[in-house]
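INFO  loader      accepted 1 record
INFO  loader      residues=290
INFO  predictor   begin
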Amino acid sequence: MQREMPAELLSPLDLLRVPGNALGFLVRRRLAWSRGPVEPADEPKEHLFEWLAPAARAEAEAAARDLAARYDLAALRARSSRLHFCENLALLAGLERLVGARELPAAPDGVRRALDVGCGLFQYATALQRFLAGDARGPTRALEVRGIELDARGLYKDGHSRADHARAHARLAGEGVSFEEADFLARRFPPQDVVTLFYPFLTRHALLAWGLPLTCLRPRELLTHAVATLRPGGWLLVANQTDGEFTELARHLAGLPLEIVARVELSSPLVPYSEATSERVGSLWSRARA
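INFO  predictor   done
INFO  writer      dumping tokens
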């Protein structure tokens, strides 16, 4: 049986967040606020990488043009904010580094089914859909991609909820992509080919900083359920903020029917907060075949 490590000490600020997070989460779920459909932003995309030095900027612009062409990002470019467009580029570049030349798994019926757990406002839905379908150099794959978010009623400055924005991003991503407000741990899904977890909450500090109550911190259950949702041979793709978080991830995955396939750094110059990505880690795990 896996030994549980002692919970990390909470800072005074974290302790102050505990009651407020619990109350806020309850209120958000009870109100279930929605302002209705969101009209995607249309910000100009010229001079995207102004935070970079000239040589690095030229490299980033070349990489962006290549990604946009190979993954058909024209619709996203025309209907997104500058930040979200850059985040889609960064995700595509990171996924390419992580997966490399490996062929993604798909069901015998030819459909690739994927769950993105804890998708937030799902602003990267287009990148995820395009990567799972395959780039423009080869045949595309039929897809069912579903974003799942527990805390879907947080409000943004435009008065829309996180769910409103997530549904808009799912629509923009195209056919086969959907968003669902749900507790992943309370649901059962058909066997999936790919499950993605981008920056899951594995520590109390990270969870509280986001605004969730401590009752939502169940990393071992989350990861066990994610693995159980995969069909044999399916992939678990995880991104962590730091090497320490990756170590925590590996600890929770120990003993589950998985093997690690790849681990890469996910730092990216393609987002304006590039310095904050310097310690990010991506990992690819495969569920053991029966």
